[in-house]
Every structure is written in C-alpha cells, then in structure tokens.
Amino acid sequence: MARTGTSRWAPSPTCSRKRAAAARRRCCSTVSPAGRCRAHLSRPHAGPQAVAAALRERRPRARERGRRRRRRRAEVSRAATPRAGQGALHRYRRLRDDADPDSGWFNLGAYRSQVYDGKTVGCQITEGKHGRIHRDKYFERGQPMKVVILCGQDPLLFMLSSSPLPEIGEMDLAGGLRGEPVDVVRGPYTGFPIPADCEIAIEGETVPGEVRPEGPFGEWMGYYSDDTQERPCVNVKTILHRHDPILTCAPQHKPVDETGLLKGIAGAAQIWRALDACGVPEVLGVWNHEAGPATRFTAIQIRQRYPGHARQALHI
Fold first, then answer.
1. Are 93 and 81 spatial neighbours (Cβ–Cβ below 8 Å)?
2. Does residue 229 surpass a pLDDT of 50?
3. What percentage of the chain exceeds 90 in pLDDT?
4. Residue 310 belongs to domain spanning
5. Are 83 and 21 contained in the same domain?
6. Does residue 12 fall inside a structural domain?
7. Measured distance CA(30)–CA(32) in Å, rounded
8. Which of 112, 118, 172, 183 is nearest to 147 (CA)?
9. Environment class of 9 (CB within 10 Å of its CB; exposed 0-12, middle 13-18, buried 19+)
10. Residues with Cβ < 8 Å from 296, sequence gap 6 or more?
11. Residue 78 has what DSSP assignment?
12. Are 168 and 107 in contact (CB under 8 A)?
C-alpha cells in the first residue's frame, strides 16, 4: 500500500472513541518511526523547524501503561539476593535509575547496591560514571538524590545500562532499538519512569553525609576490587513488585561471562562510530572481545587502502 503524508485510517461516524483509539494504535504500530518521519517530511513546505519538530515527536519515549502493586511494609531483606562471589560477606543488587538535576534526563546504570537491612542498601558508583556525576551535583547543593533500584529487568536495558553511551536516556535508546516505546509506570515516591515488566523496583533516596561500610565486591576481572570503605547509602521508601518475583542475574567472575558479552556490543558500536567520525575509511567491522572483557581487547577489521591505515585506526 502506498503511503502519503496523511493518515491512512479514517473512523466511521458511528465508531466509538475507544474503538477509534484502538484502531489508530494498530495502524501506527505497523509503520516504523522512520517511516512516519519520512511521510511527514514529504509534505510540501516542511522547513527546518518542522523537521526538528517531527524528529522530536518520533523519538522513542516511555509511555505509562500497566498495573503496579505496592506493599507498605515490604522490606528489601525479604527478597532473594545473590552474593557477589565465593566467600563474599554481603549480598548485592545491580541496575539503578536516577535523574540529572539540570537537564532532567533519566540515566540507567549498572551500579552495585549492597543490602544492609530491610530499609537500607548501598550506593557505590565509580568516578566518572553518569550516576556519580548526578549524585555529586545533588550533594554539592546539599540535596538528596532520588533513585530507583531495578531487579529482574529486560536484558536489553541491562545491556544498555552497562555500556559506554553518551548522555542519552537508555530507555529512549531501548525504544529506538525495539521500534516502540518502553512501557513504564510512574514511581509513587520518585516520580521516575519504571519499566512495567521489571520484577522488583525499590525507590529511595541517598542523603549527603549518610554513609555505611561497603564492600568488598567480586569484580569483572575475577578479583575483589577493594576493601571495605565508607560510601553513601540509599534509604528505602517504597517497594513495587510482582507476585513471586523472578530475579535475573549476571554474576561477575573471570572472563568470559555474560557481562563482558553485553558490554562488548554497545562498546564496539561506539568505537565504530568514533572511527567514522574521524574519517577512517573502509572499516568493515569492530568487536570488543568478551575475553577482554569487552573493554581491554578490541578487534578492528579494515580494507587496507594506504600505508599506515591500520595504525591510524588503532590511534583513534
């Protein structure tokens, strides 16, 4: 069927609003965001402002959908939590959601959260990570930072959260890869978008000056990264969960492991993007090998065109 800039769905006068909305959603779901954008740009007199508006309208965005269940007296310690390596003294959870205080964009990061008791978990974030930058901004202003700890989430979100991506919302990027928005519910305490299909969501806040002993933790290189140190913690406010939740886990140990594989995919794409931006021609493939794991062993395939071509690629 040929497409034009106008809608190809027209409800009859007797069609109810609910049926019309359902039919419109079915119609739009059959066309990719890029196709809808091309249809819009094909209209006459589409100037730069119209182009920018079309791109903003078609970008992946989270939409509220689904039911949520809230237990007022739920405690973190009641749910199953894995240990971080053989002989580890503590239990940890991973994925965390926070917001930039200036721009408001939501960041998903794979940061470890040590479980202390039913109402307190750790908040360890390495220097330079987006979550650490956001937390430092809040603490410099003397303000607490609200966070959401996600457990049993979509593997695609975990892959994007543990990858070196620019300052862009991981849920927006996940929607772009899927071709449809990520279904979310609004957190009752934080107001953050929470993936509707995750098993457990823990809302809380980390307050300047409140610290607890944290670590050690079995890291990706197969060793314990550091000793116990005083680090900020999260005071749990609300827990949302499914009945009989199922947790997914990517344990850290010596390569090769699941974490290295997931990090290598997006990392290789970032390197390929940098090679193209620097004008390196004839790049055929880039891969961050899991044995690295994903950050220390990169293979670049090129079609050699001139002396020093391979060395040029290695210096990017």
1. yes
2. yes
3. 15
4. 258-314
5. no
6. yes
7. 7
8. 112
9. exposed
10. none
11. G
12. no
**Residue 84: predicted pLDDT:** 59
Indicate if 111 and 218 belong to the same structural domain: yes
Is the same domain home to 113 and 183?
Answer: yes
Contact 234, 227 (CB under 8 A): no
Q: How many domains, in total, are found in the chain?
A: 3
- CA–CA separation, 22 and 209 (whole Å): 51
Query: Is residue 146 over pLDDT 90?
Result: yes
Q: How many other CB atoms sit within 10 Å of the CB of residue 58?
A: 17
Paired tokens of 107: 């960041």
| 85 or 120, which is more confident | 120
Q: Which of 257, 229, 260, 262 is nearest to 124 (CA)?
A: 229
Same domain, 270 and 305: yes
Span 82-106, pLDDT tens digits:
665 554 444 555 577 778 888 888 8
Q: What are the CA-CA distances from residue 274 to residues 89, 278, 313 (Å)?
A: 41, 6, 10
Backbone angles phi, psi at 49, to 5 degrees: -65, -40
